Amino acid sequence: EVQLVESGGGLVQPGRSLRLSCAASGFTFDDYAMHWVRQAPGKGLEWVSGISWNSGSIGYADSVKGRFTISRDNAKNSLYLQMNSLRAEDTALYYCAKDDTWGQGTLVTVSS
Amino acid sequence: DVVMTQSPLSLPVTLGQPASISCRSSQSLVYSDGNTYLNWFQQRPGQSPRRLIYKVSNRDSGVPDRFSGSGSGTDFTLKISRVEAEDVGVYYCMQGTHWPPRFTFGPGTKVDIK
Fold first, then answer.
1. pLDDT in single tens digits along all 112 residues of chain A
2. Which residue of A32, A50, A52, B40 could cross-link B53, Cys pair, CB 3.0 to 4.6 Å?
3. Which residues pair with B8 in a beta bridge?
4. How close A54 comes to chain B (CA, Å)?
5. Buried b (16+ CB within 10 A) or exposed e, A66-80
6. Is A21 within 8 Å of B17 (Cβ atoms)?
7. Closest residue to B51, CB basis, from A46, A100, A104
8. B102:A45 CB<8 A
9. A90 Cβ partners below 8 Å, 6+ apart?
10. Which residue from A minimizes the CA distance to B103?
11. What's the rounded Cα separation, in Å, for the pair B30 and A92?
12. What rounded mean pLDDT belongs to chain B?
């Protein structure tokens, strides 16, 4: 079964950092580009960042560029999102996604 | 940057009746390989999004054939031939043609039952 399981979310103060992880299973991880997508409470989907299979291509939404860093470890079948200088507007459910598969999400709340 | 728009943003439908959602992009979504990377996602209440359609008109495995996608260039449509109760949710179009640097989602269309 293809599965993506996110972890690392939580409550964090503005300006602090958090690292999200996504554990992949059930498919050949290094065959696929991977993405982070977020959804603020009651809002639509926002693509956050993506990384190609070999980390050769990486992109970020303008809203997170310079603050967030995506990475992957193909040996560990894992995707990561390092989030620095967090803001209240980064509060959202963060999904790990492969083209046709999404995880259940991990909630990040930025608040003092 | 590519901007995706959808209409309508809210779509009340009668069970058994058809429904149609429009998606437009600010730039052509035809990639250099000839493919058009326009996908449709469904998000039911309280659930993660699920891809329904990829590359404009290809249904994902397990997606009922009452869902169909069409379009080209900058104009795309998702149609539900006969709406069922389980189709309630928010539908998003998403372009992947212009990645890298980025994917872009539309604002979403909320489908509910009249």
1. 999 999 999 999 999 999 999 999 999 999 999 999 999 999 999 999 999 999 999 999 999 999 999 999 999 999 999 999 999 999 999 999 998 999 999 999 999 9
2. B40
3. none
4. 13
5. eebebebeeeebbbb
6. no
7. A100
8. no
9. A38, A64, A83, A108, A110
10. A47
11. 32
12. 97
CB A46 within 8 A of CB B105: yes
- Phi and psi torsions of B8, nearest 5°: -75, 170
Strand A68-73 and strand A10-12: the pairing is unpaired
Distance (Å, whole) CA A95 – CA A38: 6
Report CB contact under 8 Å: A47, B103.
yes
SS3 B24: strand
CB count in 10 Å sphere of residue A93 = 20
Q: Which residue has the tokens 């603020």?
A: A40
Are the beta carbons of A50 and B103 closer than 8 angstroms? yes
Write the pLDDT tens digit of every residue in B6-50.
999 999 999 999 999 999 999 999 999 999 999 999 999 999 999
Query: How is residue B31 written in tokens?
Result: 């990639």
Sign (positive/negative) of CA torsion B54, B58, B61, B66?
positive
Which chain B residue lies closest to A50 (C-alpha atoms)?
B102
Q: What whole-number distance in Å separates Cα of residue A99 and Cα of residue A101?
A: 6
The pLDDT value given to residue B80: 98
Residue at A66: amino acid letter: G
